[in-house]
Design the sequence.
């Protein structure tokens, strides 16, 4: 009998379709479950009853950890685990737990107010980067090259951000290197690609159409990936590193 897997997502894109189509070849049965139709929390029954595992593909930064936590409480195996998702969806938490485990991460300051922001500006000389604690794909990440515009940039955080959207990180701008995106499946590094900024955008991000090339297996990359797995456990991760003259640093998962 095929193992039954629920793909929990807010919509079906080509990646989810490919997974559903390929599943039977691996003895699996996959079905899309809309993450807006779960209403989890009951102890006696759940929309997820009958599924052997849950593959969480929600694009929401607030739904993922909540769904994974309640699904695990209901006895459903979740990929990735609730602990891993809860850590990865918050940049401040992720960097703290990784740094404590000896994984190299950039220096940063947590900014929750204008007072925090002004102190961070005193501690880090420009250029520096302001980024939201919650979010991905390079969105709302701002490079501040001149202190004259810094306060105006923070005006937008205060005036347009709501609640958790106002939580930000300030960190030094890492220049002169390239991003390395690592794909981890289970507890194995299955591939890596190097991204370089293309055109006028300074961000080395695949979602922005930057160029990339496959890179050979690098012992320094493997060491960092193993450190990540020691903290988060096995799963499916895109681990983003940045290569500088001082070595590799983890910037995002």
Sequence:
């Amino acid at each position: 009998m095929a193992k039954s897997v629920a793909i929990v997502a807010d919509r079906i894109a080509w990646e989810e379709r490919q997974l559903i189509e390929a599943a039977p070849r691996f003895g699996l049965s996959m079905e899309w479950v809309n993450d807006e139709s779960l209403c989890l929390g009951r102890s006696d029954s759940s929309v997820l009853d009958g599924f052997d595992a849950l593959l969480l593909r929600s694009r929401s930064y607030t739904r993922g950890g909540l769904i994974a936590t309640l699904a695990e409480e209901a006895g459903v195996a979740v990929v990735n685990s609730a602990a891993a998702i809860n850590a990865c969806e918050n940049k401040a938490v992720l960097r703290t737990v990784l740094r404590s485990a000896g994984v190299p991460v950039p220096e940063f300051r947590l900014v929750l107010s204008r007072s925090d922001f002004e102190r961070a500006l005193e501690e880090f000389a420009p250029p520096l980067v302001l980024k939201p604690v919650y979010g991905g794909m390079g969105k709302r990440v701002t490079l501040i090259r001149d202190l004259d515009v810094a306060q105006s940039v923070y005006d937008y955080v205060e005036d347009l951000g709501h609640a958790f959207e106002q939580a930000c990180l300030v960190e030094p701008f890492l220049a002169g290197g390239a991003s390395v995106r690592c794909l981890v499946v289970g507890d194995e590094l299955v591939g890596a690609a190097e991204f370089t900024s293309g055109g006028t955008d300074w961000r080395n991000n695949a979602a922005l159409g930057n160029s990339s090339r496959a890179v050979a297996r690098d012992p320094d990359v493997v060491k960092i990936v193993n450190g990540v797995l020691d903290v988060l456990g096995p799963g499916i991760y895109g681990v983003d590193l940045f290569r500088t003259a001082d070595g590799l640093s983890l910037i995002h998962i």
Remarks:
- The first helix runs from residue 14 to 22.
- The helical segments are 14-22, 63-73, 82-88, 91-100, 114-123, 147-160, 219-232.
- The longest strand covers residues 235-244.
